[in-house]
Structures are given as C-alpha cells and as structure tokens.
Write a structure and sequence with these properties.
CATH class of the largest domain: Alpha Beta
Keywords: Manganese, Metal-binding
Number of helices: 12
Oligomer: single chain
Pfam family, one: Peptidase_M20
Shape: globular
Cofactor: Mn(2+)
Strand content: 15-25%
InterPro entries: Amidohydrolase (IPR017439), Bact_exopeptidase_dim_dom (IPR036264), Peptidase_M20 (IPR002933), Peptidase_M20/M20A_hydrolases (IPR052030), Peptidase_M20_dimer (IPR011650)
Largest sheet: 8 strands, mixed
Distance between the termini: 43 Å
CATH architecture of the largest domain: 3-Layer(aba) Sandwich
Organism: Halorubrum glutamatedens
Structural class: alpha/beta
Length: 428
C-alpha cells in the first residue's frame, strides 16, 4: 500500500478500472482489495469461502476459470488469495470491532461486465492510459468507483471514534445477480442494525445525492434448453421435431404474457441460439430470458407464466424443455428513516448541491437480498446514489465516472455511518 486510501482515490479507482473481471472471476480484484484492507487494518477479514458458503452462489459459470486465474496471476495477484478464492469463490468481508454500539453494514459490488471498452481518444480512460487491459471486459457500471468508496469509508471509520461494529461487504457477481444471495445468507449479515448500499450515477449528476430508492424491480433470470429430433430438411422433414420452431413459439408466447393489474411487470428474451445448418432440422435450441415485477409476488407471476409459455411451446412441437431459474432477486425499498438520515448528513457535505430524499429505481439489484434480510431481522436499510457525471449511459463502451464525485461519496458514507451510531434512527 502506497499511502492512505483517502489520498489515492483517483489512483485506486483507475487501477480497478484498468483491470476488470466479470462475476465469479474477480481474482485480481479480490487480491487488490485484500492488500488495501490489510493496509488499513481490520479486526477480521474473511476472503472467499471464509465470507460465505460457496453452495449459496447463483449463476456460477460452468468453466473452471483457469484463464482468469492465470490473468490475475500475471497481474500480480497474491497466491494465497488465489488459493482462498479458487473455483470462483471471490469477494471478501471486512469487519471492525469497536466496542459497544450498533452494527452497521456497507455493501459495495466489485465485478465488471462483458463489454469491450472504447479506444476513442475522447474517452478519458483511453486518453489517460487506464482503459481496460482486457478485450471484451470493462467496468461499465461504476463498480470500480464503488470499491474505492468502500475502502475509503472503511479507512475513515477505522480512524474515527466510531463505537460499534462495522461490516463492509465487497460483493462479487452483482451483474449476474448471483452474489447478493450468499452474502445475505452469511454469518456477517446477522445482527446488522443499519445497512447502507451505494451506487454512483444512474442519471444523477455530480453534486446530487439520492438518499434512498424505492420501486426496485424484483427479477428472475431463466435459461431454457429445447430438445427435439434432428432430420434432413429436404429428404425427411416430417421425421424431425423442430427445436427451433419450439423456440420461436416460446418467444412469441413470452411476449404474449398478460400484464398484471396489481402492478408493473416486464418480460424479455435477451438471447437465443439454435441450429447447425440450413438443411438440418434443429434438435436443440437455447434461450435466456427474464421476468421482472414491481413486487416480489409480481416477479413470481411473471416467472411462472414464462415457464408455462416455454413448456407449452415445447409440447406443441413435440420437444422437451429444461427450464432453469439461474438467479432471482426480491424487491426491497429503502427504509424512510434511514434515507432521511442520509439526506440530513448529505446536506452538510461539501460538494453536494442537491439532495433527493427518495427516487424510483426502475431497475433491479441484488443488494435487495441483503436489504431484505436486514429488514426481516428488525434492522433498517437504504440504497443511496452518489451522483456522478457520466458521458454515456451505464453498460456502454464509453461509460466513465466523474472522479470529483469520489470524495463526495466517501464523506457522505462516512458521516452516515458515524452519525447513525449517535442518532435515534429506528425502524417504526
């Protein structure tokens, strides 16, 4: 570690940005986090399978991740961390024990996306030399900034007179919707009185802070494989059971699912593949889709109707189908009491020009697993947004963050954590 995190916010964020890794392959990322956390000094640092049960993971890739392990090793990842995260058990949890007081949690995500980063000289990471070093992978959603905020807040709380227990979740695989569940099932979530989760940007400019969100859409990601019978398309098409036809019917049926009177629902088929050649009746087809709902119950409605649509399509074309839910996340709204607390803190932070007490989210996030668990156990949670100017939208090749938002985010999070310990914020 070259010095205090607070003095290296830009440097640290750029290092994370230059070395992105996708969900359940965050080997180098975890190693860098461990180095920084050890430099800060904490009372407990749980890495990989020490942080959660690997069996609780969702959307785990089938490959052995050897390519990503070797790439992490070449980047300088520590061998002991590679051993502790072997098999894609990435991420970590850091804990400060500071005597009597509340247990406060902070969740940040750490994974990148399968998006190729722009090399246009107008794109600042390309111009300034910290563009992704891995073709087809980049931090296109601000998780590089989130990790930086998490580390800097941990350091600031460590150096303060905070009294209580502070737990920071460096969560893998958010983009897959797979990492929130194991963290929410771990021992570290137990007894948390106040939980903060954070995101940058999302259309909110530098200087604005959104103290809490609501209307996070519950979501289920599904995969289905249709299996039919191959045949020659010219000589004996009647002998085939066409998996591609089943796929087409399934897609049509999916978009015909009725909306629901009790709230917003969404269904989308995002990827489909089938067939081998123009003269072969396809005997296999695969599809990836999702169902979202304004409530967890509405998500369940969409998911069950999606399965029924796919199974009906398979049956109508004499095919079989394997239907699997790969990940799903519940809805969880910010508790108004804690959002109000964040808003009050943010009003006094230098660089904050506008505070929104609450805003609609309109998308999905697996931080809701942790929020839901804390709320179910009697604690309260909020998901806050630190505004940052971004030249293009999230999940695009030219996404970037305004680094002037980093110190704003650190101060808002730090003061929110420190002040909640001395406040009367309670669930009602």
């Amino acid at each position: 570690m070259a010095g205090p995190v607070a003095e290296r916010l830009v440097e640290l964020r750029r290092d994370f940005h230059e070395h992105p890794e996708p969900g359940w392959r965050e080997y180098y990322t975890t190693s860098r986090l461990v180095e920084e956390i050890e430099g800060i000094g904490v009372d407990e640092l749980a890495v990989g399978r020490e942080a959660y049960d690997p069996d609780d993971r969702m959307a785990v890739p089938e490959d052995a991740n050897d390519e990503w392990v070797e790439r992490a090793r070449e980047r300088g990842a520590r061998e002991d961390v590679l051993e502790r995260t072997a098999g894609g058990v990435t991420g970590c949890v850091a804990v400060l024990e500071r005597g009597e007081g509340p247990t406060v949690g902070l969740r940040v995500d750490i994974d990148g996306l399968f998006i190729g980063e722009s090399d246009d000289p107008d794109h600042e990471p390309a111009r300034e030399g910290f563009r992704s070093d891995t073709d087809g992978t980049m931090h296109a959603c601000g998780h590089d900034a989130h990790m930086t905020l998490g580390l800097a807040t941990l350091e600031a709380v460590k150096e303060s007179d905070f009294s209580g227990r502070f737990v920071v979740f460096f969560q893998p695989a958010e983009e897959l919707g797979g990492g929130g569940h194991p963290m929410a099932e771990s021992r570290f979530i137990e007894g948390i009185d106040y939980l903060f989760a954070v995101h940058v940007g999302l259309g909110h400019p530098t200087g604005r802070v959104v103290a809490g969100i609501e209307r996070v859409l519950a979501i289920a990601h599904v995969e289905a494989t249709f299996r039919g019978t191959s045949a020659h398309a010219g000589k004996s098409p009647e002998e085939g059971d066409n998996a591609m036809q089943a796929l087409g019917t399934a897609i049509s049926n999916a978009y015909g699912i009725p909306r629901h009177s009790e709230g917003m629902t969404r269904v989308n088929v995002g990827r489909a593949e089938a067939g081998t050649a123009s003269n072969v009746i396809a005997d296999r087809a695969r599809v990836e889709a999702e169902a979202r709902g304004e409530t967890t119950a509405l998500k369940e409605y969409g998911k069950s109707r999606l399965e029924r649509a796919f199974r009906g399509a398979a049956e109508s074309h004499r095919c079989e189908v394997d239907f699997e839910v790969t990940t799903e996340c519940p809805r969880a709204d910010s508790d108004p009491e804690l959002a109000e607390h964040v808003a009050s803190v943010a009003e006094g932070v230098e660089g904050v020009t506008e505070v929104l007490p609450i805003a609609d989210f309109g998308a999905s996030e697996d931080a809701t697993y942790l929020m839901d668990r804390v709320q179910a156990d009697g604690g309260i949670a909020t998901y806050l947004i630190v505004g940052t100017d971004h030249p293009t939208g999230h999940h695009s090749p030219t996404f970037d963050v305004d680094e002037a938002s980093l110190p704003i985010g650190v101060e808002v999070l730090t003061e929110a954590v420190l002040d909640v310990a001395d406040s009367d914020v309670r669930a009602t």
